[in-house]
Amino acid sequence: MNAKQADKVATIVLYVIAGSVILILAALLGYILIQGVPHLSWHFLTAPATAFTAGGGIGVQLFNSFYLLFITMLISFPIALGAGIYLNEYANQKSRLTGLVRTAIEILSSLPSVVVGLFGFLLFVVQFKLGFSILSGAIALTFFNLPLLTRSVEESLRTIPNLQREAGAALGLSRWETVVHIILPAALPSIVTGIVLSAGRVFGEAAALIYTAGQSAPALNFADWNPFNVSSPLNIMRPAETLAVHIWKINSEGIMPDAAAVSAGASAVLIIAVLLFNFLARYLSNSLYKRLTATK
Amino acid sequence: MKRSWLIGTIVVAVLGSFFGWSYLNRDSQNGENITAVGSTALQPLVEAAGEDYASKHLGVYVNVQGGGTGTGLAQVQAGAVDLGNSDMYASEKKGIDAHALVDHRVAVVGIAPMVNKKAQVHDLTQQQLISIFTGKVKNWREVGGANLPVVLVNRVNGSGTRATFEKWGLQGAKSADAQEQDSSGMARQIVATTPGAVSYAAFAYLDKSVTVPTLAGVKPSKQTVANNTWPIWAYEHVYTKGQPRPAVANFIAYLQSDHIQKKLVPSLGYISINDMKVERDMNGHVKMVREES
Amino acid sequence: MDEIRESLLKESKAARRDKFGRAISFSALLLIVVVVVSIFYFVASKGLATFFVNKVNIWDFLTGTKWAPGQVDAHGKAFVGAAPMITGSFLVTFLSALIATPFAIGTAVFMTEISPKRGAKILGPVTELLVGIPSVVYGFIGVSVLVPFMRATFGGSGFGILSGSMVLFVMILPTVTSMTVDTLKAVPRHYRESALALGATRWQMIYKVILRGATPGILTAVVFGMARAFGEALAVQMVVGNAALMPQNLTSPAATLTSVLTQGIGNTVMGSLENNALWSLALILLLMSLVFNTVIRAIAKKGAM
């Protein structure tokens, strides 16, 4: 076999590999959607879950997932933004301490989410008496989310050329002013992408929530928007089972007769939501980029 | 710069007044909160009863969580929650000081072995059952079935189902190390589809996809459990630390009332405590409480 | 005179604001570090209690093959041999990395060298989507499709190391792929041009120049994927079979550190030996992620030279 033939064979092999990866994804998505979509209905999406009779929905879980995501982002984004800015703009890149901090963040990101969940359970649920609540869950998810988000903020800032910083300095701006008025707006599109993509991961997380936000979803009164009432959807001290936890629970303990159908339907909803997050990330990043740079 | 300050102030003011208004207008009934944590098997029952109870007693809110029997007992012992749901007696769980806890039985769960259909086994003696689960019998031929190797499917170590099965089904013998499943539905599915597989589950999970052998001729059923001819059953417990406060005591009484015991308990596959003709303590002492009818 | 002097010596508004911003962003960073340190301290104190409070021999813990913390042997020692789970975790991790690496490199090369346009349009989004699929969904598919398939093909129950590895393979593939793409893109353009100018075919250029140049980066990607596989819990727990036995073959039920941890933690009582032993498993997980990190740093350092 000469070099030309080897080249041809290798090219074909690479095509096959790339094709099979696409096939794997297509099969996965196809399977989930084909299994799940027939069970989707307005009733399924809005009705509360039932414990042991057929016909339960995922309405409360769906709302909980989004609300928990929102609270998590509210807590984790400012922290990640600050940490990202410090790491990229202020920290001495060569110092050992910075390296150590980066390692710490890396470790946090490779920490099994079960461990994060249990830590959250013992510290927040039990010690701080927050109980099984959205707040406990959001803090646990923040731990899980921080490393990802910090890294993506840092990377976004790093892609902004130093020319911009020098220009800011030359205009007599302080470093902070440069960051706030020049660097952040320029990095905004990729920061937004990072947020939305990490939102997708937070949305599907279950292990960290089982022991923090809880496994029960009490019925909500959607007419009551007073965050201090127990049955209000906005209350952050109520237990909240999310969609991902629900799937896990009915796969292990479900005794309703249509457990398989509910689990398939819920999986499909979860996947569709993650797909939407992905498209949203792309769209937002593109349109922001166009608006901020005036390129067509 | 000035404008952003202005907007910021307005946003803070609006949010602040919203929360202030909400706080002042919150329902005054937030006082009574009953929290129950523990056994995932018992969770649906307490949860459903809790919702029912809350709808009848305005101002009481029952918050039920899973987390496992160990978590439930540890938390109720620590005083972190009001009720600890448990599949077993508290003194059977290591690390729990059972003296401080008060037991309230809310249901009875019957457990039966289930065998893959291809094994063709329909009756077992208790000794045979023990030999199978301790790994002494390796082929179904040895107990009168087909020529098929035995595949054990165990439940998670520490789970109530396993503890009950080993205590009453295997007479205290420990089952051999094998595959473990933490869900009953999954265990049944494996037994149904794997030739020669054997496991055990609560009555609610047994169906036509598996063979449920009789034990020395006794069929597992509500009646045989009620008069203790079928020995593999256990109480579902709700524990409190010391005597419960009135609101909690009322809820426990509601759990044990006919309303819950007659309707909800059977529909979840449990046996009502009021139907039991015997009472059995932890060490197996049986006492007749009702005459056979 | 004094006014000028004062205005020169006094901190300007901008400088004060800079200090303020610096302090805020630093405190955010500090918060993260505090979180990491407290998790570490917490897991370590719980996990080490097995050895210091319950007096379990560390060596017995790491090499023992019987895991039944509730029972004691003839000498009154508890069975806390974690070897089956440690073996199981390493087996699924290495196997999944072994399957994922060729796929990831192939896909990455395709995306950067063969067909960058299609790569960016189709494969990029595809890998990003795979990252986003929640692990419970992977577990759900594993149980309903993969396990019956394994049962039909290899006999037995279908649960086992192989099923776990297959699920993990799909889960880590996108991570490894996208990191490999980044390193391949970082190989300078003139490497490619000089190779082609010397008369190399495209494959020779890829194989002899680009992949060689990108080796440290690819290794980092693979180790990173392994770190993820090692820590994954729910999806693996659903398909691996959870038998705390030394794995006899790849299709017999086995257990991993994470699967035993997730299943058991709710059934044990805090402070008891059973519970502490589980935290020791968590400590092993934590230490392993530290090891993976050190390896990644070591590779990066070597590659930079």
TrEMBL record, chain A:
Membrane topology according to the record: Multi-pass membrane protein
Transmembrane segments: 12-34, 67-87, 107-125, 132-149, 259-281
UniProt xrefs under PROSITE patterns: ABC_TM1 (PS50928)
Localization (cell): Cell membrane
Gene Ontology cellular component terms for the protein in this record: plasma membrane
One GO MF term: phosphate transmembrane transporter activity
GO biological process: phosphate ion transmembrane transport
InterPro entries per record: MetI-like, MetI-like_sf, Phosphate_PstA
Entry-linked CDD domains: TM_PBP2
Residue ranges the record marks as coiled coil: none
Keyword line: Cell membrane, Membrane, Transmembrane, Transmembrane helix, Transport
Residue ranges annotated for the ABC transmembrane type-1 domain, each copy included: 62-281
Predominant location category: membrane
Similarity comment: Belongs to the binding-protein-dependent transport system permease family. CysTW subfamily.
NCBIfam families found in the cross-reference section: 3a0107s02c (TIGR00974)
Entry protein name: Phosphate transport system permease protein PstA
Organism from which the protein derives: Weissella halotolerans DSM 20190
TrEMBL record, chain C:
Pfam families from the UniProt entry: BPD_transp_1 (PF00528)
Signal peptide (from-to): none
Annotated InterPro entries: MetI-like, MetI-like_sf, Phosphate_PstC, Phosphate_Transport_Permease
Localization annotation: Cell membrane
Keywords: Cell membrane, Membrane, Phosphate transport, Transmembrane, Transmembrane helix, Transport
Molecular-function GO terms, alphabetical: phosphate transmembrane transporter activity
Transmembrane portions of the chain: 20-44, 90-110, 122-147, 159-181, 209-230, 277-300
A single GO cellular-component term on record: plasma membrane
Chain ranges of the ABC transmembrane type-1 domain: 86-296
GO annotation, biological process: phosphate ion transport
Entry keyword annotation includes Cell membrane: yes
Chief location: membrane
Membrane-topology annotation of the record: Multi-pass membrane protein
Domain of life the protein comes from: Bacteria
PANTHER family xref list: ABC TRANSPORTER PERMEASE PROTEIN YQGH-RELATED, PHOSPHATE TRANSPORT SYSTEM PERMEASE PROTEIN PST
Purpose of the protein: Part of the binding-protein-dependent transport system for phosphate; probably responsible for the translocation of the substrate across the membrane.
Family: Belongs to the binding-protein-dependent transport system permease family. CysTW subfamily.
Protein's UniProt name: Phosphate transport system permease protein
